[in-house]
DNA sequence: CTACAACCTCAACAATAGTTTAGGTCAACA
DNA sequence: TGTTGACCTAAACTATTGTTGAGGTTGTAG
């Protein structure tokens, strides 16, 4: 009945967090937290009543997940990266920093690709060169466009 | 039986194109061309034998679709953009240029966002500020993280 | 004329990233 | 004690972007 998404009133003293609390503080839906847990990106233990309990550290973990997603990294890869964190010690600032280094590289590449794309976009769409064989925009796909020798008429 | 994907031998004189020819020359699978047609991004007429026939112009159309996809634009939006092309006249270079102008803007924004993200990435993941309320990386989601007044202990 | 490659349709399946719903349990407040 | 809000699971559903398969037709080469 949608009540799941409204912030639960905080319990007496915040040693550990309920799923609703994590949702409220991380800005991520309860259903998404369940999902992340099924996918192995976060973990919880259970209360006597079988309710999820999270260490406060989960907030950073979720924050990092969301940030990584914004860079375009799929959850599966984020999971891999998170798996490199120390398992039985709370990750330190340096642990997190190391994590982000790899992503910075990926991000840089994506930015580069998009920048090239942008710089060629107008010119190449406007010119005649989208003919698959010659256009720098299209070239990556060119392998598939070959069809042996033979009179190849001027392309559209 | 996978034969669909091997380049068909070119028919005698290329006035119009079969789906296999378009696939070979555009580097896009036949199944994807069918799909684009179902989605209304391209159109064809039919031969006597009910086979698809495309105007040569479709090559540019498909090229543009693929390029736009690389910029991260979903097919639905590409469809909208293509719908702005003149319907009964073959689009001119200027038509295509206009089309790409809008996309250049979107691309620029995406590049900007990613660049900001990159610049903040290491610093923010490493520092304590991922606490959702103060981090520039997390702030966008902050709305959901509010939970009324009350003693808010130091976040993780 | 016979094969076989290329084509057709329709339906099911795939991966990603979740959300929604149904049916039930737990816990706190009055 | 009873009601309500938060929680539980499992399964089904959403959207996007196609691919795969089954079963049948067309068209071209020999």
Your description of this structure?
The structure is a homodimer. With about 160 residues, the first copy, chain A, is mostly helical. Chain A is built from six helices and two strands, in the order ααββαααα. Chain A has helices at about 20-25, 30-40, 55-70, 75-85, 95-125, 140-145, and strands spanning about 45, 50-55. Chain A has a two-stranded antiparallel sheet with strand order 1-2. In chain A, a hairpin with a 5-residue loop joins strand 1 (about 45) and strand 2. The longest helix of chain A has about 35 residues, at about 95-125. The N and C termini of chain A lie far apart (about 55 Å). Residues about 1-5 and about 140-155 of chain A have low confidence and may be disordered. Chains A and B meet through helix 1, helix 3, helix 5 and helix 6 of A and helix 1, helix 3 and helix 5 of B. Chain B binds a DNA duplex (30 and 30 nucleotides) through helix 2.
Order of helices and strands of chain A: HHEEHHHH
Radius of gyration of chain A, in angstroms, nearest whole number: 24 Å
Q: Which class best fits the helix and strand makeup of chain A?
A: mainly alpha
- Sheet having the most strands of chain A: 2 strands, antiparallel
Largest interface: A-B, 62 and 62 residues
- Strand composition percent of chain A: under 5%
N-end to C-end Cα span of chain A: 56 Å
The order of strands across the largest sheet of chain A is: 1-2
Q: Report helical residue fraction of chain A.
A: 40-55%
Q: Name the assembly state.
A: homodimer
- What is the 3D shape of chain A? elongated
The total beta strand count of chain A reads 2
Total number of helices of chain A: 6
Mean pLDDT across residues of chain A = 78
- Low-pLDDT stretches of chain A are 1-5, 140-156
